[in-house]
Amino acid sequence: xxxxxxxxxxxxxxxxxxxxxxxxxxxxxxxxxxxxxxxxxxxxxxxxxxxxxxxxxxxxxxxxxxxxxxxxxxxxxxxxxxxxxxxxxxxxxxxxxxxxxxxxxxxxxxxxxxxxxxxxxxxxxxxxxxxxxxxxxxxxxxxxxxxxxxxxxxxxxxxxxxxxxxxxxxxxxxxxxxxxxxxxxxxxxxxxxxxxxxxxxxxxxxxxxxxxxxxxxxxxxxxxxxxxxxxxxxxxxxxxxxxxxxxxxxxxxxxxxxxxxxxxxxxxxxxxxxxxxxxxxxxxxxxxxxxxxxxxxxxxxxxxxxxxxxxxxxxxxxxxxxxxxxxxxxxxxxxxxxxxxxxxxxxxxxxxxxxxxxxxxxxxxxxxxxxxxxxxxxxxxxxxxxxxxxxxxxxxxxxxxxxxxxxxxxxxxxxxxxxxxxxxxxxxxxxxxxxxxxxxxxxxxxxxxxxxxxxxxxxxxxxxxxxxxxxxxxxxxxxxxxxxxxxxxxxxxxxxxxxxxxxxxxxxxxxxxxxxxxxxxxxxxxxxxxxxxxxxxxxxxxxxxxxxxxxxxxxxxxxxxxxxxxxxxx
Length: 570
What we know:
Blueprint: H1 9-16, H2 20-29, E1 32-35, H3 41-50, E2 56-59, H4 66-74, E3 82-85, H5 97-103, E4 109-114, H6 118-127, E5 133-138, H7 148-157, E6 163-165, H8 174-183, E7 189-193, H9 200-209, E8 215-224, E9 241-249, H10 251-259, E10 266-270, H11 277-286, E11 293-297, H12 307-313, E12 322-326, H13 333-342, E13 348-352, E14 375-377, E15 382-384, H14 386-395, E16 401-403, E17 408-409, E18 415-416, H15 417-423, E19 429-431, E20 438-439, E21 452-454, H16 462-471, E22 477-479, H17 488-497, E23 503-505, H18 516-523, E24 529-531, H19 540-548, E25 552-554, E26 559-562, E27 565-568
Parallel strand pairs: 1-2, 2-3, 3-4, 4-5, 5-6, 6-7, 7-8, 8-9, 9-10, 10-11, 11-12, 12-13, 13-14, 14-16, 15-17, 16-19, 18-20, 19-21, 21-22, 22-23, 23-24, 24-25
Antiparallel strand pairs: 26-27
GO cellular component, one term: SCF ubiquitin ligase complex
Pfam families: DUF7885 (PF25372)
Protein name: F-box/LRR-repeat protein 15-like leucin rich repeat domain-containing protein
């Protein structure tokens, strides 16, 4: 019971140090593990022995040969349900698929980097007849990729398949969708991204004949005029999530969803064109009781969407728990206020690239605080006054994660970080990547609950960093990547103040001397991972010494040498 209340991994690590019995309890309760790219094969083997009840393993961009790691997993005696093994390098699945299949009879989810197109799908189909979720990422999709024949064979074998990702399968066509629809009666989720030979006809056949389909994710440069076979309305009764990217859709397509009596819970139209306010508003009205998540916009935004449109549509959005509005430049403070006031269940709110702070909105004092919002992203805004930002943040006082990335404030009106912490006393994560100018003025705020601070590519200096450390003693994650004004002295001060620090990045901090790294590792025993400011330090011997102290110190991958200088590689 006590263990169940330890919701953070760092607390569980401390729990294991009490006695061997607690260590045994922790080991036995762990069901998933993620092996980083820096995990040596010897450490991987030891961890597989230590955690005997693992059900899910993720091995991405493994430092050694990926197939060697998977063979060790196959021979570990574990009864896995999920294996994810993605890599930039070839994983040689023909060497390990058969052995993995003979030892992992209950594997339900398999995702890996393939290399032989159809051959990979044939091996999987013959080896894992119980598989429910499959994603084979092609190593070189433009040269070797699965074809319709490979998909047809695989679908004829995997009768229990529920999820499949067909992203970047450039050689498949509508035939693959027909095979999946005919052969996999339990199919629930499918992703179709950058499959250039897939057309509206194939998608129509899929949605008309896959009666259990509940999620459809399409990212293709194609035009869809209607949903399903024309004249048919008895299809996709289970569809709940529809995600479209770079798709040309007409209002008639949105109307066909209404005619089919589909009540969506998740709708995402990213970088889609040709639909109008009439189409989207009618669909939102139809799904008003069921819709929980809405995403609109993209790199192009939604050019027609205005504050007046939000005013009209907000009455259909009262049950939303998540809304994302990317680069809708005509939206401003009024839209923000209307959404916060009329969506009482909203937990996740993203409104980027809009005109926030440029409207003289009448704050009449009658607005209610929206305490449901826990995640707020107001990134990519220009010429914003911090006073306007604070007024908006005061409406959402219970925000726990705040993202203000790439925000540019007026030169004479710097963003004072303590003001943000004052507005949101529950804030545990703050991302100010690329935002400036920011400062840390003296404040009466004694202490915040902030645990994660990301100030990459900012002009924060030693003085501000020291003050941040004082008011944020609970920090466990600090990212100072490319903070050119920070020196070793500033880093020392924040390390002294933050006694719980687990992760620290000083990558591309050109003024931070590498000689401070041994001091950091020695004086902050809680630290588990540190990204160095040098691409040459630490060497292998020093790296091992740091590991013995419990800290993984990595060379900076972002620096490249040029003459006698170190330049930051973008």
